[in-house]
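[User] Once you have settled down, look closely at the record that follows, and write a paragraph about the fold.
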Amino acid sequence: MLYNDIKGIIPFFQFEGKYLRVSEITGGNVNNTYRLEYIMGNRRRLYTLQHINQYVFKHPKEVVGNIVSVTDHLRQKMLDLHEDPNRRVLELIPTRSGDFIHVDEDGEYWRAYTFIEEADALDMVNTLDQMEEVGRGFGNFQKLLTDFDVDRLYETIPEFHNTTKRFYRFVRAIDEDKAGRVRFVEDEIEFFFERRRMMGEIVRLLEKGIIPLRVTHNDTKSNNVLLDSETGKALCVIDLDTVMSGSALYDYGDAIRFGASTAAEDEEDTSRIALNMDKTRAFTRGFIQETNGFLSNEELSRLPLGIKVLTCELAMRFLTDYIDGDLYFKVNSPDHNLVRARAQIALLKDVEKREADLQKMIEEFLKGKA
């Protein structure tokens, strides 16, 4: 039973009311997440409890420290703008000792949030209005953090989007061939070697100061923006584990990669995978309406590069994990990471075909013609 997994943990958090039940939230690839239901008088209280994956996040206390700093800033910023932060900013639940993280007797790390009710996290965006709101949500997130000092943030996953160093890691995985799988993926390996320079372009732009470091979410899947169930409007950006300094191109590119694909990340039939330009345009409209005014022209004009780099990077990460023996991402079959890698490769090939159209789209938005 799920309760047995968490019964020794929940007494350490300041949950209000009497415990009723637990269910598992299964959407994520990294942390184990549970929804807790409590009753207080005649009022139901819902909470999210998470077990932090220490293989991915080596320093959980610093991860949670980032989240506290960012959510405090977002909440104060909304108050300064005379906006209600209720349901719009993640709210961490303190432990009985007043911290925001609990370490159990096995050295495992846990944290908890207030569960935001009457909100939808969409694994697959169904309408263009929804896609625009996801873009607006992530754009607003960056806008509210423009005056947050990026140097305050701990680098929760070192060199997370440093594609140059990820490529070296990929090459090392090939050389080590821990799981004996390299012989099955020679064509895929060649694919990434051919795109090595493109993958490192954002890193070079940052190093040269052509584009600035900003506070970025770094995991901009559509299901990380909650949409209000009644109005459909962007409500709250969630899953802040990877909030770090980075490029706006990362957030834009990853959001399009995930939300505007015509198929799931693990679609086996690659003929079904392409870039949906209508969804791309809708997300871009929401994102640019929120960010055009503080993002530089150097950033805005290079947004399509973000799609290529982030799609290629994730494809290579999936293949690296497959070669290593599936150590990072959760898998449901021995070939799951390989299927994911091939799906992203198929998507990137379609993005490359549409590059001129993507650039024209951005130019139209910046000229106010879209």
In short: Residues 128-366 form a domain with the Aminoglycoside 3'-phosphotransferase; Chain: A, domain 2 fold (CATH 3.90.1200.10).
